[in-house]
Structures are given as C-alpha cells and as structure tokens.
Amino acid sequence: MPPRWKHAPPGGHWGEFGPDDQRGRMNLVDTTKVLQGVAEVKTGRTFCLSLPLDVPGGQRMNPRRMPPRRYSVLRDGKSAGQQGFCWSYQSEDPDLTDVVNDDVVLMSLQYSTQWDSLSHMGSHFDADGDGVAEAVFYNGFRAGVDIRPGTEDPGAAEPWARYRDPKADVLDIAVLAEHGAQGRGVMIDLEHHIGRQRQAVGYDALMRILDADGVAVEPGDMVCIHTGFADTLLAMNRNPDVEHLHATGSGLDGHDGRLLNWITDTRLACLLADNPAVELVVPKLASGSQPGTPMRQPRLPLHEHCLFKNGIHLGELWYLTELAHWLRLNQRNRFLLTAPPLRLPGAVGSPATPIATV
C-alpha cells in the first residue's frame, strides 16, 4: 500500500511512531511514566479537574456547542417519563419492589471540560506532493476517506440532527481512551505570575515562569496550564459574561515560533488548560508582504502545531485552580493525573472528569 503522504508539514513529526500511528505523543506515556506519576502520590488526596458538565451554561461562549439536555428513558404505562415511579425495567407488577431511574442525554461532546482527539483539527496541506492542498490530519489521514462527514437529512426535526453519523475511522477519541490517559502531570501556574488578565504568553515569559517555580517538563509529561479562566467561569453560575471572560485569563501564544518549538522539543505528551483553547485566540493576522495580499494561515496555530503536525492531544476548560493553589502551598508542581475520555468510537472529542492525586 503506498504511503498516504510524501511530505510532512514543516515543524511536524509525522511517522515519528510509525506511518500508521494514531496515538501521537501519548505514546510517550508508557509504563515508566505511569510509575513516575504514581511516585508523586504522597498524601492520597484527590482533586476533581472537571467543571460540572452543564458549565459554561447556554451557548454564549460557543453557539455551535449545545449544553446537556436530559430526558427520561422511554417506558410504557403509568411509569412513562416518570423517574422514581416504575416498579421494574419491564413491568409495573405491584409484586415487584424495584424502583429504577435511567437518563438519556443529548449534548455536544466538547461543551465543557474536554479532550480534543487528533481528528478534531487538520489542515489544508499538499501531503502527496501533487501541488494541490487537500484536507488531511495527523500522519496524513484523509478527510472524506478516513474521517467521514455525516449524511445530510434535510427534513431533520432539529438543526443539530441534520447531519447524521459522522465518523472518524482513525484518530478518534477512543484511541486515547484505550491508551488509558494516565501518567505524570506537571502544573504551570500562569495565573500566579500574571494574574487573570488577557495576555498571550510566549516563549520568553514562559521560561521565566518555569525558572521562577522550578518547573521541569520532561518527555512524556502531561502538562497543565493554569490561568484561572475556568474558576472565573464557574463563579458566573451558568450565566457567562463573554466580554468579561475574554478579558480574563491568559493563554499560550500560538504565533510564537520559539514556543511551538519548545512544545515539540520537550517531547511533552499533551497540553491541558483551563481556558477554552489552550492558546489565546487573537484576531486574524495582517495580510502578506504585498498590500492587499491575504496571508494563508491557521486560525488556531497552536492547534495546528499540536494536533495536526505533532500528534499532541489538547484538553480545554479543565478546572485547575484548587489543584494549582494546593501545589503552590505545598511547594510542588507534579502529581498523578488520571484523565480517560469516553471510549466512544468515531467521535472527535469527549467530555472528561480528570482526577489529580497528590
């Protein structure tokens, strides 16, 4: 079978773990890294690193992502739709004592605390060298072939149901779930140094923070970025003030080439942040060298660098404030991180309820 690609993108490491690899840098989270994480457990205390699944609240932060909508499972007879009413799964026999509740939930998988799979974001790139850019993902997997759109149903009852059964046959979130997503976490506490203000943190600023806190990032570490954003969001009690949120909390500068190189060169396994994108989303850059000439570019350069070029999973809207404060109080920055996504074949993202153990 011929290779899916002849050219890897600049700054990328396709084929690093083999031409058909789907795990990316999570391959570095091996048994040794799990044991390193376990070795960081000193007190046995745990921290929940997820927001409640119905936070942010509404769709103000992202109109494309729906909050959870819950329903009762379908039953017949008097118990139809009634939680806490029916006697048993299949019967309303008064001689049975069972009282059973079941829920159904409809939601966007990346609404709240989430993992991005490697199929979440690709790029238009000439991978096969024919002079035409095609939509491809990490390791050259193809849109429309390996990652397929849903089938349109123009008569769908609701807009969200219009495109049914999209599927990532490769690079889906189940690949990460099957790997386990457990290893050594490392905290980088941006909030402590720059406060809760909108600031794109580049390489120089990040190196100063790492030096000040004595943080060392080693190959296979699962790196957490604390900005305070999720804590601010949680305090809004499911009624987010988007303007205030966008003025609150920092993020990594995806346009800083030295920072992107550092992410690659440290061989960290994944980047996890309490803000909506890990990177600070900025307005589209100015045009190219010729006036009026548009500059072809990604909207989210750190996403492109991590997910598309290097197979580095991203996590967003993780709740890190309580853990970050505890680690600083105890002069620590490492911990055991356990963060499996849902094992949902074909999905490009997943809610997560990560646990840190210190």
Task: Describe the overall structure.
With 358 residues, the protein is α+β, with helices and mostly antiparallel strands. The chain has a domain at 24-61 and 109-121 and 170-286 and 295-357: 3-Layer(bba) Sandwich (Glucose Oxidase, domain 1). 20% of the residues lie in helices and 18% in strands. It has helices at residues 31-39, 173-179, 190-194, 203-213, 229-235, 242-246, 257-265, 301-310, 321-329; strands at 46-48, 69-72, 103-106, 114-116, 123-125, 134-136, 147-148, 151-152, 163-164, 167-168, 182-189, 200-201, 222-226, 251-252, 270-273, 313-316, 334-338, 349-351, 355-357.
User: What oligomeric state do these chains adopt?
Assistant: single chain
Structural class given helices, strands, pairing?
alpha+beta
**Element string (H = helix, E = strand):** HEEEEEEEEEEHEHEHEHHEHEHEHEEE
Spell out the CATH superfamily of the domain at 24-61 and 109-121 and 170-286 and 295-357.
Putative cyclase
Termini separation comes to: 47 Å
- Radius of gyration, taken over Cα atoms and rounded to an integer in Å: 22 Å
**Average pLDDT score:** 92
The strands making up the biggest β-sheet line up spatially as 1-19-17-11-13-15-16-4-18
> What do we call the CATH topology of the domain at 24-61 and 109-121 and 170-286 and 295-357?
Glucose Oxidase, domain 1
Helix content: 10-25%
Supply the number of helical segments.
Answer: 9
What proportion strand? 15-25%
Q: Sheet bearing the most strands, described? A: 9 strands, mixed
The number of strands is 19
Q: Which shape, going by the Cα principal axes?
A: globular
Low-confidence stretches: none
CATH level 1 class label of the domain at 24-61 and 109-121 and 170-286 and 295-357: Alpha Beta
The CATH architecture classification of the domain at 24-61 and 109-121 and 170-286 and 295-357 is 3-Layer(bba) Sandwich
